[in-house]
What we know:
Elements: E1 42-44, E2 50-54, E3 57-61, H1 64-79, H2 91-100, H3 107-120, H4 148-160, H5 165-184, H6 217-226, H7 233-242, H8 246-250, E4 257-258, E5 263-266, E6 269-272, E7 278-281, E8 290-293, H9 296-313, H10 334-350, H11 361-373, H12 378-385, H13 390-397, H14 402-411
Antiparallel strand pairs: 1-2, 2-3, 4-5, 5-8, 6-7
Amino acid sequence: MKCQRGGNLKAGGKGSGQQKTAAERTWTMGKNLKGKELGEGLSQRRDGRYMARYKGKSRYADTEREARAAYRQLVQDVESHAFVNKSALTLDEYFKEWLAGRYDLKGSTKANYKTWYNILTGKRKWQHGDKPKKKPLDGGRKVQSLEKRDITAAQAALIANDNKPETVNCVMGLLKQLMKQAVQDGIIAITPCYGIKTVKGKREERASNTIHRALTREEQAAFMEAAKGEWLYNMIDFMLRTGVRSGEARGLRWRDIDHRKRQIHIRNNRTWDENRREIDGSPKTETSTRDIPLTPEIKTVLDRQRQQLRDMFGNIQGFNDPVFKSVQGNIVTKSSLKTAFDRTLSRMEASGHGIEPITPHALRDTFATRAIEAGMNPQTLKTLLGHSSLSMTMDLYAHVLPDTKREEMEKIAAAF
């Protein structure tokens, strides 16, 4: 008997003449990037990720160990008929199958994918009134029946349903991923998403001009003064002085404060799982795992925070305890931090010094802006912020500094 893909089939026993089941066969499917044989159903892609494949179905993993586990589960799913016939496979069924096999995704990413898919298939409650909205794409449609005109119509419906351009692009990006995988799984021959362009928003609506808004020096001083009455004031001050993300500050532990090396280790991040429950997770990206210098000013903030916790809860703060706690002694939630911001903004409004609404992310933007104004090397700023590229840092923050550009031009005026 010939083996699939040219491998050598191992007999069930010496002279027994019995065959092993499909799940028990062993043959060479691929090698890793170093040339090592991986065995049945496994291969490693050029980007370093592993692929487990069985009877036209595939799943991906970051490590060989995870790939082997994924392959065992894949065999079990296929042999137990967890997968339906390709020709009858609906979009809903394939999305569920595809998402379950994405072992490489964080829970928060899976949660976003579910949200975007629900927008695509009209399963999400609309936020623009009770008027029924048109389904961009029916989740009950067979994957093999989808054509490019269906995808184009879906994109048009997303726009007509008052979704923001970035939301439309996220939804369509998910659909493109799904259809590309369907091609690799042999369900369809070509992707119907080929040639579908992204939606461009208005220039003034770019994230760098809206979400990423830094406080002016005057706004910064007024906001910090108004925030002094908040229990989370020390946390707000810490975020402003370090540029850390909200989740990184909320996930900080006392063990991360290295007084000997005078560093703050950013190793943890408060995020959420695919069911939108807050959990401890890794930083946003690989470069987000970083060390921030523990300056005397930041040390003062942390000493003040430790004393506040001692006054409230006694001298019982453990090495693994959160640096910042709620007034009840729990981990600070994203919503409670936003509430502190809203109360601060309300006090500013009542005192006649109101400013445009901001989110906690404005502290990170303000830190970056003050750093650039002070002449910090962009590469150093990139490292402190945990950005993966210098262009990301400069694209987000350099545009808010017209005065700095003017000052820099004046410096070289004498050269001409």
